[in-house]
């Protein structure tokens, strides 16, 4: 377990002349709920994209369990136990909730391509087992009654839950949540807090970006604060709340944004 | 809904099984064409409907299967049965080799590239490359299919051969929808980035779709060559690819949709033959109207094919 560490060292990502992430270093330890915060455009999502293989950082290293994962494709990184959700929900919108969650079982399924042409008893059993697992997740996220509903016809809060269920279907070691509370009402946010804690109880490390400060202060163990792509502070939520740099860069402007 | 499609599938199969005995020779030929083109359209559905790749070159794989059977039989004296595996494998390999460098292209770019492939293919046939394709006239005098000592040369025999091929294709289509690879194709069509981020190697599955589609089209091509005991380049022109493409769009990406599409495109024109040129005028408008009124096709794909035990009644009350 102690080896489930994600270590970023001097990660730099540029878009043309803009340095979106500037020599960022951070370390996510096993079992943590780790938060990345910062004002809009601070480069938070870019960091996540660099970790999950959607972008390749120009410099630095991203090590997961001691292995360099910088430059790997997203599916190779998922195979190593890192899975993410998106800020703008990306579900397979025409497909049902159960089918969406089933997509997370893809890498766990033992079926080969030939089973799509000619099934065998083994592939049928594998299919059944994975659907059972989908059933468990539907129950965990309280989505059972929507199993056959196309996700595009679900309200926003439920879509967020489906996306998290889909990510958990991979049986990840590290779950990356990009603004999981965006667009949720107070009730749903409270449920989300419970969910994040129960995910951690399963032994999954959680890395999240969030704008909802209350949520961040409640759930995270450790925080990194970004501004203009640079790390300006890190520490426990209590330390961060007292940090004058953070207050100036982020919390200070929060009042104006809040309306 | 599920019961309805099962019943309609059974009715369809029974009707198709007895059909040739109710028709005269001319209509038997039309019926075989319907079967063969249905197989090609279903193969196009794997690439276009399921995986969502704008492939406008399916007639090339169809033609390759036909020419493999024709060339191996007429130039090298292979019996037809022996040419069939090659007529499947050769298009599969060509499909994989051609698809590998292009599947990352976005829809419209992929479309243009596959049109290019189809045009090059037909030019190769017309220019008699390697002296085996017979040039613009094609190849004549292909042997009939001999199986277990029987010579399957009558239209009825060929009908059942084509029907068996269609049944095989339908079985593959149904299996595909209940498997990991089949779902992977749906996922990558819906959202490639999300699919990749959940662990699906989208490139691999796109190439798989091309390969499988090419193999099935190749098999249909081999049947086509046997039916007419001749092949010629114009049957595999780019315009044929356009027809297969339209069938999947107009029919909708589902088995009944594709079969209805083939019927409308290839059988109805035969029925309304006496109206000669007018029929295409009408069909053009029918296509336009279908796409406006039913943008997802006459019989669109349905999702939610999930095991029964997952479907729970909605809870009552709040």
UniProtKB/TrEMBL annotation, chain A:
Please indicate which superkingdom the organism of origin belongs to.
Bacteria
Which InterPro entries does the annotation name? Answer: AAA+_ATPase, ABC_AA/LPS_Transport, ABC_transporter-like_ATP-bd, BCA_ABC_TP_C, P-loop_NTPase
- Boundaries of each ABC transporter domain copy? 6-253
Task: Choose any GO biological process term that the UniProt entry carries and state it.
Answer: L-isoleucine import across plasma membrane
Pfam family example for this protein? BCA_ABC_TP_C
CDD domains named among the record's database cross-references: ABC_Mj1267_LivG_branched
Q: Which GO terms describe its cellular component?
A: plasma membrane
- Sorted alphabetically, which keywords does the UniProt record give? ATP-binding, Nucleotide-binding, Transport
- A single Gene Ontology molecular function, please? ATP binding
Q: Which protein are we looking at?
A: ABC transporter ATP-binding protein
Q: Which organism is it from?
A: Pelovirga terrestris
From TrEMBL, chain B:
List the Gene Ontology MF annotations in alphabetical order.
branched-chain amino acid transmembrane transporter activity
Q: Which residues cross the membrane?
A: 27-47, 59-78, 84-102, 109-126, 158-176, 207-230, 242-268, 280-299
| Localization terms from the record | Cell membrane
Q: What GO terms fall under cellular component here? A: plasma membrane
Q: InterPro entries, from UniProt?
A: ABC_transp_permease (IPR001851), LivM-like (IPR043428)
* Membrane topology, as annotated: Multi-pass membrane protein
Chief subcellular location equals membrane
Q: Which UniProt keywords apply?
A: Cell membrane, Membrane, Transmembrane, Transmembrane helix
Protein name, as recorded: Branched-chain amino acid ABC transporter permease
């Amino acid at each position: 377990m102690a080896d489930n560490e994600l270590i970023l060292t001097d990660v730099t990502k540029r878009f043309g002349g803009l340095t979106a992430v500037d020599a960022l270093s951070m370390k996510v330890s096993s079992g943590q709920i780790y938060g990345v915060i910062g004002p809009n455009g601070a480069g938070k999502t870019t960091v996540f994209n660099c970790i999950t293989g959607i972008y390749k950082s120009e410099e630095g290293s991203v090590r997961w369990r001691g292995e360099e994962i910088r430059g790997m494709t997203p599916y190779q990184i998922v195979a190593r136990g890192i899975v993410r959700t998106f800020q703008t929900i990306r579900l397979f919108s025409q497909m049902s909730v159960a089918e969406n969650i089933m997509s997370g079982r893809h890498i766990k399924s033992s079926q080969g391509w030939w089973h799509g042409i000619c099934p065998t008893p083994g592939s049928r059993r594998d299919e059944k087992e994975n659907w059972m697992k989908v059933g468990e997740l539907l129950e965990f996220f309280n989505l059972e009654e929507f199993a056959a509903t196309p996700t595009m016809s679900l309200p926003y809060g439920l879509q967020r839950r489906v996306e998290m269920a889909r990510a958990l279907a991979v049986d990840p070691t590290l779950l990356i949540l990009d603004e999981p509370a965006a667009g949720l009402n107070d009730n749903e946010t409270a449920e989300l807090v419970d969910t994040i804690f129960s995910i951690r109880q399963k032994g999954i490390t959680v890395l999240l970006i969030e704008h909802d400060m209350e949520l961040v202060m409640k759930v995270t163990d450790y925080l990194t604060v970004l501004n203009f792509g640079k790390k300006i502070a890190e520490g426990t939520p209590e330390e961060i709340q007292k940090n004058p740099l953070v207050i100036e860069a982020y919390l200070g402007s929060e009042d104006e944004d809040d309306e | 809904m599920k019961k309805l499609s099962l019943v309609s599938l059974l009715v369809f199969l029974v009707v198709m099984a007895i059909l040739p005995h109710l028709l005269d020779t001319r209509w038997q030929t039309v019926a075989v064409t319907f079967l063969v083109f249905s197989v090609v359209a279903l193969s196009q559905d794997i690439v276009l409907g399921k995986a969502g790749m704008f492939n406008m070159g399916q007639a090339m794989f169809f033609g390759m299967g036909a020419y493999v059977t024709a060339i191996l039989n007429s130039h090298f004296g292979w019996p037809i049965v022996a040419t069939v595996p090659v007529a499947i494998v050769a298009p599969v390999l060509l499909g994989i080799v051609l698809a590998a460098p292009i599947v990352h292209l976005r829809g419209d770019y992929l479309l243009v590239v596959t049109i290019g492939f189809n045009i090059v293919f037909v030019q190769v046939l017309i220019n008699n490359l390697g002296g085996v394709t017979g040039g613009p006239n094609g190849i004549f005098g292909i042997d009939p299919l001999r199986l277990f000592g029987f010579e399957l040369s009558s239209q009825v025999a060929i009908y059942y051969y084509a029907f068996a091929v269609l049944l095989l294709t339908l079985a593959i289509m149904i299996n595909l929808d209940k498997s990991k690879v089949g779902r992977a194709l749906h996922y990558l069509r819906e959202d490639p980035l999300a699919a990749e981020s959940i662990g699906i190697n989208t490139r691999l599955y796109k190439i798989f779709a091309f390969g499988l589609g090419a193999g099935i089209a190749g098999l249909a091509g081999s049947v086509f060559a046997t039916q007419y005991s001749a092949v010629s380049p114009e049957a595999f022109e780019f315009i044929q690819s356009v027809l297969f493409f339209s069938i999947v769009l107009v029919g909708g990406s589902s088995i009944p949709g594709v079969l209805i599409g083939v019927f409308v495109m290839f059988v109805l024109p035969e029925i309304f033959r006496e109206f000669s040129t007018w029929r295409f005028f009408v069909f053009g408008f029918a296509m336009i109207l279908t796409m406006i009124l039913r943008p997802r096709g006459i019989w669109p794909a349905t999702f939610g094919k999930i095991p029964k035990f997952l479907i729970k009644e909605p809870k009552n009350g709040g």
